[in-house]
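Why do we care about 3D structure at all? Because function follows from shape, and shape follows, mostly, from sequence. That is the central idea of this module. The next example makes it concrete: a single protein chain, its amino acid sequence, and then its structure expressed as tokens.
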Amino acid sequence: MKQYFKFVLILSFICNGLVIAQTADQILKNFKNEYRKSKNFTADFVETTIHGTNKGTSNGRLTFSKPNLLRQDYLNQEDSSEIVQTIVLDGKYSWSYTPLLNQVNKMIWTDPDRKELLPGIGFSLENLEANYNYQLKDDKLAKEKGFYRMELTPKPHLLIQQGDQATIRETIELLIDSKNWLPVQFGYYSNSANSNNVSAIITLKNIKRDLPLSDDLFKFIIPKGAEVIDISPE
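And the structure:
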């Protein structure tokens, strides 16, 4: 009898594991299908970054159009009518403009054909299953509100190596809304052997899909008198 119960217990664990894997696969499939249907989206965002012991929070408005066009306007937290920084990715260059300094940082976009969830985040839907391990996280609060939290970790061939040891461990988290299977939050976590840890979380609100967008949104015009610094890798 004890052997029977042991067998049932082991079988239960195996079956539970299969259910979790299938659920993760289905959620990822739904997410990818809905994402592929979208041509563009706009949203308000809150961005939280933690670098070591330093924490910063900013907010603004972003517009993304496939395959690799992005505009992010960061707003003054005390006066939302004032833009304190603008980032534009036009498919060829990344432009970052700070009005207070009247300074522009310019960087060449090394792979104009790269397709990403959001340009600059570094997470690509192309060959996702081949490049990432993924699983659902047990987040009861998120589930109660109709969200699924997905964790993705790069497979060994994507890790930065130093000798035989990976020096940086990266994790990506997606919070996916079950109403439309689109992400409402992106999390990036990087842990290194020298404790130089970095976290970045972007939360999206007021998401609107497939609006008629002007091409001018993704064209950056250098402001008069601005200093331009080219930070492209050599």
